[in-house]
Amino acid sequence: MSQKITFFPLGNAETVLLELANDKKLLMDFADMHTNQDGDKRCDLTTTLSSHESFDVVMFSHAHDDHVKGAKDFFWFDYAKAYQGDNRATIKELWVSSAFVLDSNVCEDARVIRQEARHRLKEGYGIKVFAEPDSLNQWIEDNELVKEDVEDSIIHAGTLLKNVDHDLGDELEIFVHAPFSEDSEDSEDRNEPSIVLQLRLINGNRISKILITGDITHEILDKIVKRSENAGNCNYLNWDIYDIPHHCSHTGLSDECGDEITDTTDDIKRLLSHYAQQKAVMIASCRAFNDVGENDNQPPHYQARNAYKKYSGKRFIATMEYPNENRPKPIVYEIDSFGINEKVNTVNPIVSSPAPRAG
Asked: What residue spans define the domains of the chain?
C-alpha cells in the first residue's frame, strides 16, 4: 500500500494533490496561474488535472486568488447551472473555513466557491466548515437553519478526523491545527484564518506526517505550537514534509524580513528543528529565487529561505526550481512503509533554447 502527494509549480500559488491507495483523492487549493504566453513555465493545472473527473475532498485553505484562481471554470458547482457541464470535475465534499463562508468581498473564483459552500450548508450535504466564530452562528440563524442540523459540518481546531469523519479511508488521519475560532471573527487578513492540517498517512507500523500550512502567519503558527504542546499533542507537530507557509514569505516566520536571515520565535524554531523527522523535506510553493528582483518585496524571500535551512537543517525545495528553473515539473512523493520517497524527475536541463510552454 502506498500514497502519492504532488506539489505543482505555479509560481507564487499553491495546489497540492494527495492520492490514496484506495483511489480516493484530496485536493488542497486550486490555482491555475498559467497563461498561454511564450516562456510561461508555470504548470497548466487545468490540463494536468483534466483526467480527474471527481475529487472526494476539495479544500480551499483561504479565499485569496493564488489559492482559488480558475476554480469557477474547472469544478462543477451544484448551486448554479452556469457552473455545470460535462467537462467539469465534481466535488464530493467541499472544505472551507468559516471566514471563507462569511467573506463578502472576494475575487470572482472565491465568490463562486463561497456560494457553493453556503448552498451545501443550507441543503445539509457535502461540506465541512472549519472554526465556529459567533458570526457563523449568526449567519446560521439569519438563514433560518437549525444549529443541530449543521453542527456535524463544523470542525474545530484540535480535532482528529478519522475515516468515520472524512470518508477517505482508514489509511489517512487528519489533525486540524487551525483556524481558531477567535481568529476567524471579522479577520482583516485572509491569511490568518487559513486551514492548517497535519496529514497522517498510515502504512503498517509507520505513520508519515505532512504539515499543510496555507498562507498562515507566524502569529498563528506560534499559537499552534504553544497550544499543541500544552495540550499534549506534540505528535501532531511532527513532519516529514513541511509545506512552507505563504510562498516562503518572511511572514511565516516574523513581521521583519531581516537583512540576511529572518529571525523567529523559539516555538517556531522548535517546530522546524525538533519536530522534523529524520529524512524530512521542506517545500515552498513559490517563484524561482532568481526571478526576484532587487526591489521586489513579494515572496519568496531569500532571508526566509536562509532561516528555514538554518533552523531545520533539512532539504529545501522551491516548486519553480524543481528539477531545474528552466523546466519546472511537479514534485511527487510516494509514501509507504519506508516513509516518503521522492519520485525523481529525469528531465534534462535546457542548455541553449527558450523555455517551452508549460503543460
From this structure: 3-342
Rounded distance, CA 310 to CA 14, Å? 24
What percentage of the chain has pLDDT greater than the value 70?
A: 96
Strands 331-336 and 315-318: unpaired
| Phi, psi for 101 (deg, rounded to 5) | -60, -35
Nearest Cα to 97, choosing from 74, 63, 65?
Answer: 63
SS3 203: strand
Contact 210, 204 (CB under 8 A): no
- Per-residue pLDDT tens for 202-216? 999 999 999 999 999
Q: Cβ(304)–Cβ(264) under 8 Å?
A: no
Fold category of 3-342 in CATH: Metallo-beta-lactamase; Chain A (3.60.15)
How far is Cα of residue 103 from the mean position of the Cα atoms in its chain? 19
Supply the pLDDT for residue 175: 98
Question: What is the 3 state secondary structure string of 113-146?
Answer: HHHHHHHHHHHCCCEEEECCCHHHHHHHHHCCCC
CA within 13 Å, CB half, 300:
31
Asked if 308 contacts 244 with a C-beta cutoff of 8 angstroms, the reply is yes
Q: How many residues does the chain have?
A: 359
Tell me which DSSP letter residue 172 carries.
E
